[in-house]
Each structure stands twice: as structure tokens, then as C-alpha cells.
Amino acid sequence: MDLAGKVAVVTGTSRGVGVGIARELLRAGATVVGCSRSELPGLPAADGDPAWQERSAQWVCDQGDVASIEAFVTRVVETYGRIDILVNNAGGTVPSPTPEDVPELVQKIQGSPRSDDAFTRSALFHAYAVQMNLISPLWFSLRAARQMLTQDGTASIINISSGAGHPVGSPTLVSYGAAKSGLNHLTRSLAIEWGPKIRVNCLALGPTSTDNFNSFVLGDHDPTDYFRDVPLKRAGEPEEVGRTCVYLSSGKADFINGTTIEMDGGMLQGVLYDAGLKTITDLL
Ligand SMILES: NC(=O)c1ccc[n+]([C@@H]2O[C@H](COP(=O)([O-])OP(=O)(O)OC[C@H]3O[C@@H](n4cnc5c(N)ncnc54)[C@H](OP(=O)(O)O)[C@@H]3O)[C@@H](O)[C@H]2O)c1
Q: Which UniProt keywords apply (predicted)?
């Protein structure tokens, strides 16, 4: 298997995309340590497979707390001796109808600190989105790199970004889009800083089929209508993201560094060119 003997840390593995990433890394032979704020008896991706359970752990870590990251990474190194792969997956947000007045329900769903005051609520909502989607991945990368830079071989960091970080901007997701755009940029900078010891790459996801995406984003939309502009006409699957992580962290991708791969079924092109191509077609 491609990743036999490698130790991988994946953030946000209690549900969603992180489960698919952890599962595919396990399938490729890696030892996988996952984390989330909630305490769980084991890594959900390993459920039902004793060999995978043997090769995995799920520990509590709040990536918003630098001391929690320090304690978690220290425990990984003390237990497994090294870190070959870090996938910064934990993050996300929910759309807000306006950037300046975030509804209490939206704040609650995102999980950001609450406030009865409208301005304070909006300010905390945006600060939280930037913390979770840019600053915490940087904190995790810095702490993991302290270990990775001392090891033999080349380590791999993969940041999970979003199409919302596209340079055209991202209405309803203004702070999240800015944070993910920053994450793409951070990926390039850290790749330069840490090469050749660490390769740093990024995956910018389009709609990916998780419980949260299905309830809060897809909701009651008709999937055929929702995915009309996506050339592949569907959402991605967490395991598809996981298989790209396996590829990026395996020897097969040794020369891929500092790049952001769009994993969205061609959605950006579909959305951007829908209007333009229609106009051109009308002219012909
Ligand atoms: N799903 C999509 O359509 C989509 C699209 C584009 C990009 N993405 C990106 O993909 C990544 C995963 O998204 P998802 O849809 O799988 O989200 P999700 O279903 O909300 O899962 C988020 C995971 O992160 C954990 N987490 C949240 N806050 C944390 C914290 N402070 N410290 C540690 N762990 C924390 C959660 O566990 P606890 O709550 O137990 O802590 C959970 O395991 C995110 O970076 C998101 O921006 C997703």
C-alpha cells in the first residue's frame, strides 16, 4: 500500500469530509490520528474494521486553542514517533444573507461565540470564520512542521479549501471566502518556506456530500436544478477527496508542491461560462 508505515493527522474527523479522508488514508495503509472537539470512543472512519481500529485514534483537540493543538501534536509524536501527513480539514461555515447583520440562527449554526448585540454578533461570526479556516490551519501546520522538519523523508501537508476562495469573490460567504483564499495563498508561501522537507498543497472543494451540506446548503433544492451548472451534475463524495489526499501524500505526487487543485466537478467553469457561452451561442 502507498502509505504503509506513514503517520497521518487529520483534523475534523468526527463527521463529514474528514471521515472520507481518514477512511482512504487508512485504506492506503497509513496510521491515522483524527481529532474533533467532541470526545468519541474511536476514529469513526475505522468503525467495524479491527485492523483499521488498531491503526487509528480519535482524540479531542480544539483547533481554535493553540494550547490544545500543542498538547495534541505532542501526544501524537510521543505515541507514534513521527508525523508524515497533516490534513487541515476542520473548518467550514454557513452562508449569511448579509455580511453586516448576521442573524442569530446563522451564528448558532456556525457555532461562533454568541451575542445579543447585532454588531458584536457579526464581528464575532466573521472573526470565527477566519480563525477556523485560515489561522487554525496555520497554527496546526506550524506545530506539525516543527516535528516534520526534524524527520527523514519528505512530509506532506494538505489544506482543505473551497471554491468560495476563488478570486471573483464570494457573496454570502465573505469572511469564509477570504479565509479560504488566504489558505490557498498560505499554501504557496509555506511550500516555498518548507521545501524540500515538506510539500504543501491544497484542495479547493466544491459541493461535497456531507450531512451538513445536505441539510444546510442543499436543503429542499431539487438536486437536478442545484447541480445544473456543474458539468458532472452532482456533489463530490468525501471518499473522493480522501483518494486525492492519498495521491498527494504518496510518492506518486513527489513533484507536486504549492498548488491548489479544484475538486468541484468543473463547477467554477460551469458557473462562470454559463451566461457567457449562452450569449455567444445566441449570436451564432
Ligand atoms: N461539505 C462541503 O460541501 C464543502 C465544500 C467546500 C469546502 N469544504 C471544506 O471541507 C472541510 C470539512 O467540511 P465538512 O463539510 O466536512 O464540515 P462538517 O461536516 O461541519 O465537519 C467539520 C469537522 O470539523 C470538526 N471541528 C469543527 N470545529 C473544530 C475545532 N474547533 N477543532 C477541531 N475540530 C473541529 C467537527 O467536529 P466537532 O464539531 O465535534 O468539533 C467535524 O468533525 C472544511 O474545511 C470546509 O470548509 C466543505
A: Oxidoreductase
